[in-house]
Amino acid sequence: MPQETLKRISTATHHGCIVCGEGNDLGLNLEYRVAGPDMVCADFECGSDFEGYNGIVHGGIISSILDGAMLHCLFSRGLTAVTVDINVRFRHPLVSNRPAKVSARIDSRHGVLYFLSADITQGGRIAASAKARFFYKPQLDQ
């Protein structure tokens, strides 16, 4: 059920998204999957179109991937929300044209605020991690 809920909301609300949109031919087209209670992940590979420096994925793209993964955690619970703030830590370069994985989880909730975290791994090490707050907005899925 959480996987179907995630897919339904993502398709309905993010069709043109640069990270996950099925309707965006220029995007990454990440397919998130439920990886456990309040957790999602996706395998991906960024081509050279997403580079900043040669051979290295642009930090803005990395931030977008982390943000999208955290949002999809909320989608898996049937929730829509907007990012309040996000803090990204870049640990190692994310090399383009090589497999990577993004994982995200819901850490806690305080009223209408959800606290989430995510990381991107490549070659067995964390390339980037993030923590973010999301504001629950139920009308976004209508």
UniProtKB/TrEMBL annotation:
This is Acyl-coenzyme A thioesterase THEM4. The keyword Membrane applies. One of its GO terms (molecular function) is thiolester hydrolase activity. It is found in: Cell projection, Ruffle membrane; Cytoplasm; Membrane. Keywords: Apoptosis, Cell membrane, Cell projection, Cytoplasm, Fatty acid metabolism, Hydrolase, Lipid metabolism, Membrane, Transit peptide. It is a peripheral membrane protein. Residues 54-121 form the Thioesterase domain. Its EC number is 3.1.2.2. One of its GO terms (cellular component) is membrane. Belongs to the THEM4/THEM5 thioesterase family. It comes from Limihaloglobus sulfuriphilus. InterPro entries: HotDog_dom_sf, THEM4/THEM5_acyl-CoA_thioest, Thioestr_dom.
